[in-house]
Each structure stands twice: as structure tokens, then as C-alpha cells.
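hi! just following up on the protien thing from before. the input was this:
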Amino acid sequence: MSRELPDHFVNTVEGYTDLNMLEEAAEECLRMVEADPTNRKFLTYAVGKVSMGTPAQRSKLFPCLDAYLQAHPDDLYVVEYHAALLAVENRHAEALAQFARIPYEKRGHDAYWLWFRTLIDAGELAQARDWIRTVWPAYSLKVRSDEFTTYVKFLWDVSWCLFKLEEYTEAEAGFKSVIELDPCALGAYLDLGRLFVRLNRPQEAIPVFKRGLRLTWKEIDQQCSYPGIIGYFPEERRQIEAQIRDELTKLQSSTTKELHEVHPAPR
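and the predicted 3d structure came back as:
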């Protein structure tokens, strides 16, 4: 039977996480796993923290997971976490193969979402569309009732998939719902604005981009639909804001040019 996580260990790791000292948190977890590599609770807890560490730290955890699963191949709970870490490493084919070992009805909601996200990242859009059409309508009701934040993440990625498939009406409704449910979701403003740009609706895109840029960092930290534990990393947040500014600048420049063409300045 797996030994429980010691309180002092959890407090140390969560303290590091709260301070954005993610490598230190990952290192604490690796030390604990190396001391007791057969403990499934240590392994699965470590996956969440080490996934936010460095590639070198993640590479240290894989042999521990592999060894555990060789001894316990039917432990689908650990298989789920193994698949999640493979997905973080962008090892999409391996991650999907591991997820495939777990029946849909036995997947945790967050793992189910990560499976769908990996499916999109692997470019399997036809399979994703089939799943959206056959499973998502009923499943969305269950996940919304059970785990609201996972539902919003799922809805966001379903909407993104529909956008990629050029099913714009449903994608637009989805992105709008994400923003309504999670108004601090910075990236959703970028996605909805880009959809409006794709549909040649610049007058709708501009206020969406502006709303996103008005969010303060404190508000963005309150986003509930971000896939990580601590929200956006500072550099990631800056990149999204820069993309929104770039889109807005292009739109405003284009709109100004069109106005000058319609109403040329007097000579």
C-alpha cells in the first residue's frame, strides 16, 4: 500500500509552487520519488509538479514511471499520469497510445481533456470532429456539473478545433461562452478576435482585442480555465499580449487606410 504524502513535503513543494520556484518544487518531488519509486501517490503527485519543471527534470521521472508500470501494467491511474507527462513533452503518438489503454468511462475529467488536447496537437482533427459530434453533447453536461473549470478548458479547445475545421458559427459561439464563463481568460480574446478577422469582421474584432488588453495581470491570474496550476507564466502572458497588440495594430492601420480611401484628405 502506498505511503501517504508527508505534510512537511507537500507544504514545501506547494510553497515553492506559490513562489513560482517551479524547478525547486520539481526537484523536491524527484528526491521523494527516488527514495520510494514504488509509491504511486508520490509518482502521480510528482507528475503535476515535474511537468512544470525543466525538460531534464521530466526526463528523470520517465524511468521511474516506466519501471512502476512494468511491475503494475494494469494500474490505469498511473497510466493516465504517464500519458499526461508524455503529452507535456509533445510526444503525441506515445501519449495517445497510453490514453487509449484507458476506457473513456474510467478517465478522469482532466485526463479526458488532455487526451482531446493531445489529439488536436497531433493534427488528428477528423477524429476530434467525430468525437465532438458523437460524445461531446452529452459529456459536456456531465463535466460541467462535475468539474466546472475542466469544462471551460474543454469548451475552449472544442471551439478551437471547430475554428481549425472552419466551422466558424459553432466556434464563435464557443469562444463567446468561454469569455462569458471565464472573463479573465486572456487567450480567449485573442482566439475570438482572430476568428472575427478570418470572417472579415474587423469592427467586431477590434473591441474584443481591446477588452483583452484591458485585463490587469491580477485579473488574468484569476483565470479558471488555464491548464496549469499557477496560471500563465510571465513570458507566456507577455507573448499573448504582444500577439493581441500586433493583431490590433494591423486592424487599426487597415481601418485607417480604408477611411482615407473613402474620405481622402483635401488638397
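The chain has a mean pLDDT of 90.
Residues 182-262 form a domain with the Serine Threonine Protein Phosphatase 5, Tetratricopeptide repeat fold (CATH 1.25.40).
cheers
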